[in-house]
């Protein structure tokens, strides 16, 4: 049979009377009027019971540094928050490849607005230069437009002319002008040709003549009529002297297909 509901015969021991005999209750030990007293409770470790051993009474106090560390951290945070900002670093100088720098001035070749002008050399002294010149000429000839090829090995006057245009003394070849504007050297022409931009540069230029010049055979130079290509003239009074009508090779520009000098 189940036990009937009712009061349990088991009696619970009342500890209130025994606890009242003690000197103080746990609630009285840890009671405090405000949160400021917590620091005093943690900072000292005084014996709460008079029944401790004499050894514990003479034991040195344990110092708790928790609140000390908190105060130190707060003081550091306040110091950092009131610290003046560091001075701004100077801006770095613009490098030559900086996209924000001013663009280079446009270099133009007067009198060449309707054709391509190529400064090159036909000499094989420097193989890499010769290969670059031949490759650029081959690319430009493929568009079948009017090209003025100026060979520095045929006339040294082209070198001074190019130095005057670019404002440089040391130059590499080839150098290309399209429609009177400077394009660049072999690397620039190759890159423009690979991406298809070079075709846009030559649009609108007159087509090249399908035939070869009968006077010079396509070399753009003929022998000087005054010295017959010797670059020397003889007179009975003064002897030999240099011909002033031709270059150092005894050649003059072809009057049929070459443009006049600058």
UniProtKB/TrEMBL annotation:
UniProt lineage: Eukaryota, Viridiplantae, Streptophyta, Embryophyta, Tracheophyta
Protein known as: Thioredoxin-like fold containing protein
InterPro entries noted in UniProt: Glutaredoxin (IPR002109), Thioredoxin-like_sf (IPR036249)
Coiled coil: none
Positions of the UniProt region annotated as Disordered: 1-27, 81-103
Positions with biased composition (Low complexity): 16-27
Residues in Glutaredoxin domain copies: 117-183
